[in-house]
Amino acid sequence: MQKSVVLAEKPSVARDIARVLNCGKKGNGFIEGDKYIVTWALGHLVTLAEPESYGDQYKTWKLEDLPMLPSKLQLVVMKQTSKQFHAVKAQLQRKDVKEIIIATDAGREGELVARWILAKVHVQKPLKRLWISSVTDRAIREGFQKLKDAKAYEGLYHSAVARSEADWYVGMNGTRALTTKFNAQLSCGRVQTPTLAMIEKRERDIRTFKPVPFHELTVDTKKGITFHWNDEKTGEKRIFDAERATKLRERMAKGELKITDVKTVRKQTPAPLLYDLTELQRDANKMFGFSAKETLSILQRLYEQHKVLTYPRTDSKFLSSDMVDTLPDRIKACDIQPFRKVVSQLNNVKISKQLPCINDLKVTDHHAIIPTEQSPSPTALSEKETKLYRLVVRRFLAAFFEAYQYDQTTITANLTNEQVTAKGKRMTSLGWQVVYKDDASMKSDEASERHLPQVEVGEEIQVTKVELKSGQTQPPARLTEGTLLSAMERPMAYLESQNKELADTLGKTGGIGTVATRADIIEKLMNTHLIEKRDKYLHITKKGQQLLDLVPSDLQSPALTADWELKLERIANGKLDKDVFVKEMKEYATNIVNSIKQSDKTFKHDNVTGSPCPDCGKLLLEVKSKHGKRRVCQDPACGYKKNISKVTNARCPKCKKKLEIWGEGEGQTFACVCGHREKMSTFQERRKDNQHKKVSKREVSNYIKQQNKKEDFSNTALADALAKLKKQ
User: Fold this and answer.
1) What b/e readout covers 337-349, taking b as 16+ CB neighbours within 10 angstroms?
2) What superkingdom heads the lineage (predicted)?
3) Dist. CA 436–CA 75, nearest whole Å
4) C-beta separation of 103 from 8 below 8 A
5) Could you give phi then psi for residue 636, rounded to 5 degrees?
6) Both 13 and 71 in a single domain?
């Protein structure tokens, strides 16, 4: 009997698909049934070959051998996952297999994972595509009923190959040129370098910012209304002339305030749009301090493992009209605490295609991140998973409620021929904000209402105090991971020249990088010590600043990489030939190499230690990593490295922060940023004492039993009295 091979991206998804397709026979790297054989990748099993594959001259890094421009890039099986590749290959080449169903993640990278495996195996069997955005049993079942012809996704595959080859030509050549020219571990890339440049620009803006002092005038009245002075022509509340501000206050303090206008306008705020990945990463960073990478990792678990959220790597905030029939079941799945009360209010709500969140034109490969038709069990999710799941559910449920409505009242008055105003707000319909009413991290506007007493036009009110408040203009805030994600999505403000056409291009492409890659880019900048995080803010390091000084300026511009993304999108839509784009990238890589070769600049390490490298004798560098500190040789060709400290889970007895461990063997010492230090022996003694002080579960259980006995009804005075009554 002829069978179909289903190629999934990860084992967990493969198991789900196999269960739905009634495949129960487990083999070496596959699960088989009567009609289907389900096998899986482990992410990428095949990748582009390293430079040394194209000739012995590339085995050592030399500036004179650059640029490296192989006519065709080769595919190689990744060593660490080669066992699974051969397991997949064996299933694809089986004689009883008539067709292959690609079931990798429904996106550009997912398409590349599958197609590169098929290309390396040289399989020529008919291809179909499973395109689903959640991995619930229902979604899988419906997806297999609507399998697509894989030819429809060839443009997406060509786009993915073009992106990968462009990164190879530009990244490999640029990185080797910088490293060999300046004898330092330096790297550049079409997305990471403009991202680094954005952080540097913000640093520059803060450094060159000059605060300007200003004053604001507030007027307190006997009726309890506080008015604010504002310029009648411009509406500006700030006064930048100190002398004028002082004179105004003196004059206004003696005057009588007269109401000239009272205006009440009914306003409304619609529910926020559904989450795409970037906004969800931004909110998670702002509310919980999660990094972009961490948020994506948690979302991936909620999608793959728990199956309670849809596909996370999306740039859309809308749903397609064909999803309307699934929405009641998704709302029902949200009928768990703390959402029960909110869900009960949606029982009689009619769900139609007219909802603001339904828009076919604004759904690209994937719709917004929303809950699936499956509820999480009460104890299934970790604390972090629960936080993100609730964020998505609140945003989803809010979409079905009416707009938040309020009356905004503006009172305008005259005080010694100067205009002063007071604004008040009164909620008329809570609308979608009912969803956030019990959420401490997202207070509804209801709490911030400012009621104003009734006044009439022409009414005169006594002034009790005129106060002059001083302030000064503030520099732009440093970027956090959340605000950097926003900047990557909308980098128009970071263009050196205000070119409207370039700004439009950035708008069309959705910024630099993609929703799926931005978290990795930020992580890479940290891991290569080009940026560092202090508290929650990102700072460029001296190494990062020097790198920008050495890299050609056009590679730093957001416009260039946005233009590339636009071309990649055209390749995906069949409007641009992949080879034309790759040829352009080769030319660009050549220009970068030539520019670096001709540079007369130098690179100076700012983290040199006094210790020589035991292998080559050059002085070692001290670098920070996520897990502590290490010393590495400054010569990239040497490659020596050694960990010297490690961040542990042990807590400082003074400030409770995580301790770092330094040294080796008996001489190991714990150290804290607050200055606390203790030897390993002292730490272990302290730990033993603490363990003795801790109460075991058995002791707690015995104590509760004893308390229950003490509180037993038979031992009370009332029980004794009742016993006597019984005897009588």
Assistant:
1) eebeebbeebeee
2) Bacteria
3) 51
4) yes
5) -60, -30
6) yes
Helices 292-304 and 481-489: angle between axes, nearest 10 degrees: 80
- Tell me phi and psi for residue 600, to 5 degrees: -110, 15
Binding-site residue set for Mg(2+): 9, 105
Model pLDDT, residue 489:
86
The CATH number of whichever domain residue 13 belongs to comes to 3.40.50.140
Between the CA of residue 688 and those of 665, 681, 683, what are the distances in Å? 20, 11, 9
Same domain (yes/no): 496, 564: yes
Angle at 60 between CA 58 and CA 66, to 5 degrees: 50
| pLDDT tens digit sequence for 504-556 | 766 666 778 888 789 999 999 998 889 998 888 999 999 999 999 999 888 88
d(CA 568, CA 519): 20
List the Cα angle 63/65/67 in 5-degree steps: 90
The pLDDT value given to residue 4: 94
Q: Note down the domain range covering 517.
A: 164-207+478-597
Question: What does the DSSP assignment read for 506-518?
Answer: HHHHTSSS-TTTH
For residue 667, what are the contacts with CB-CB under 8 A and spacing of at least 6?
679
Q: Quick one: which of 192, 200, 5 has its CA closest to 90?
A: 5
Contact 46, 114 (CB under 8 A): no
Characterize the bridge pairing of strands 36-40 and 3-8.
parallel
Coil, strand, or helix at residue 718? helix
Burial 246-285 (b: 16+ CB within 10 A, else e): eebbeebbeeebebeebeeeeeeeebebbbbbbbbbbbbb
Q: Which two tokens stand for residue 462?
A: 């006594």
Quick one: 377 and 491 in the same domain? no
CATH number, position 506: 1.10.460.10
**End residue of a domain, out of 548, 571, 597:** 597
723 is a domain residue? no
Q: Domain tally for the chain?
A: 5
Same domain, yes or no, for 588 and 648?
no
Angle CA 344–350–354, to nearest 5: 130
| In-domain check, residue 712 | no
Tokens of 598: 């001709």
Burial of 221 (0-12, 13-18, 19+ CB in 10 A): buried
* 139-163 per-position pLDDT tens digit: 899 999 999 999 999 999 999 999 9
The token pair at 275 is 């989450």
Q: How many beta carbons lie within 10 A of that of residue 519, not counting itself?
A: 23
Q: Look up 36 and say whether it is catalytic.
A: no
Q: Identify the DSSP state of 102.
A: E
Domain final residue, candidates 450, 472, 494: 472
- Reported as a single tens digit per residue, the pLDDT across 304-320 is 889 999 989 888 899 98
Q: Are 338 and 438 in contact (CB under 8 A)?
A: yes
Nearest to 395 by CA among 519, 283, 515, 518: 283
Query: One of 36, 275, 311, 406 is an active-site residue; which one?
Result: 311
Cα 158 from chain centre: 27
